[in-house]
Amino acid sequence: MFCRYFCFFSVCLLLPTQRRCSLGHVPDLRGSDTTSLPGFENLTLGYNKYLRPYFGGEPVQIAMSLDIASISSISESDMDYTATIYLRQRWTDPRLVFHGNKSFTLDARLVELLWVPDTYIVESKKSFLHDVTVGNRLIRLFSNGTILYALRITTTVACNMDLSKYPMDTQTCRLQLESWGYDENDVIFTWLRGNDSVHGVEKLRLSQYTVERYYTLVSKSQQETGSYPRLILQFELRRNVLYFILETYVPSTLLVMLSWVSFWITLDSVPARTCIGVTTVLSMTTLMTGSRSSLSKTNCFIKAIDVYLGICFSFIFGALVEYAVAHYSSSQKCAAKAPEEGPANELTKEMEEVNITNILNSSITSYKRKISFTSIEISSDNVNCSDLTMKTHEKIKCVLRNKMHRIIGYFTIQNPSNVDHYSKLLFPLFFMLVNVFYWAYYLYF
């Protein structure tokens, strides 16, 4: 059956116009025209599509080339990419040699009657062969027995991504072609022209990526059933960071700067400063949540954008805490002044009611008491811990008490208004230093 249809289609293409075949009629190859195709009628005599060329002998050399038509999507959440490719395979089958120097393009449905390589795409999640309007396949036969077999395939291939530097990352993805059942003793895969075997990569226009470079490799896959030939196309994709700068980095930086506005508002304006602090914290939280929603399935990675958003959130929250500390210190200082001013006012009223003698007597008495109390406080604060009469545990307690007084005095805020004054300088300075280290690390290391 194969010989009948194969000879019918092929011979009809080669015969002159006036001798073309009519439907259902096969020309007689024994006539005068048989000299143009000597032996063609026996081309498929004894052909077995279940046996590879050179069966039992040397391996078949299969040369491949690729055209990348498009890469429609690259998914960080699923860690894969979808590409449409034109795969071309060439090999020589000595059983299909015929005389002449022409090549014939055959009906793609005849591929079912020929031996073809069992090539598959490694790490492919799903693939399909285009079939509109017919199956997008091509079979071309050359006189020396070389067969060109071309396919149009859309495939979704896994790509392991390292998102630690997202969105300033560069991803390396692969498209790997391997023989499923024939090991290296049966078939040998080679690229037709090395790196020039791949076309279309340099013309790709992707939404978030730019193709940095690509190259081809020849490898082997060592498995339990044998060593299988493998061809690898490896390409590097660099993410375009400009979109993320406008979408995330600039808004988060502006929110940090907005939180610094509270440093120029007085401590008495509690609603204004509290409103700015709470609003910036909530806005930053919303921005962080939105940035993570696009990569919901890859939250296990600590990405560069997460680090920056965490830094901005820390500065915004620090500005809110700064106001809480300054306001608390100010209220404590006012509370400490209130008892001192109360007895003074009462003393003034008494001085208006008593005579000069009573004033002098009471003043002298109170002055003596103050001197005695002051001397006692001074002596208690400056206890001499080297006194020989003191016991060891008392000396230890004395030293610890003096140390604690010094530490508390060191961290005590004497003037709460200075907190805002220093924050105006320290917050922007530290934020700029952190930005310098952040961008230097993720861009150059």
CATH architecture of the domain at 48-239, by name, is: Distorted Sandwich
| Percentage of residues in DSSP E strands | 15-25%
Tally of separate helices:
7
Q: Note the overall shape.
A: elongated
CATH superfamily of the domain at 48-239: Neurotransmitter-gated ion-channel ligand-binding domain
Radius of gyration: 44 Å
Mean pLDDT reading: 80
Classify the fold: give the CATH topology of the domain at 48-239: Acetylcholine Binding Protein, Chain: A
Distance between the termini: 66 Å
Structural class: alpha+beta
* Biggest beta sheet summary: 8 strands, mixed
SSE topology string: HEEEEEEEEEEEEHHHHHH
Catalogue the unreliable spans: 1-41, 370-381
Protein name: Gamma-aminobutyric acid receptor subunit pi
Keywords: Cell membrane, Chloride, Chloride channel, Disulfide bond, Glycoprotein, Ion channel, Ion transport, Membrane, Signal, Synapse, Transmembrane, Transmembrane helix, Transport
GO molecular function, one term: GABA-gated chloride ion channel activity
Membrane topology: Multi-pass membrane protein
Would you mind describing this structure in some detail?
The chain has 445 residues and is α+β, with helices and mostly antiparallel strands. 40% of the residues lie in helices and 24% in strands. The protein has 7 helices and 12 strands. The strands form 2 sheets. Strands 1, 2, 3, 5, 6, 7, 9 and 10 form an 8-stranded mixed beta sheet that branches. The chain has a 4-stranded antiparallel beta sheet with strand order 4-8-12-11, with no helix packed on it. Strand 1 and strand 2 form a beta hairpin. The longest helix has 50 residues. The chain is elongated and about 120 Å long. InterPro entries: GABAA/Glycine_rcpt, GABAAp_rcpt, GABAAR_pi_TM, Neur_chan_lig-bd, Neur_chan_lig-bd_sf, Neur_channel, Neuro-gated_channel_TM_sf, Neuro_actylchol_rec.
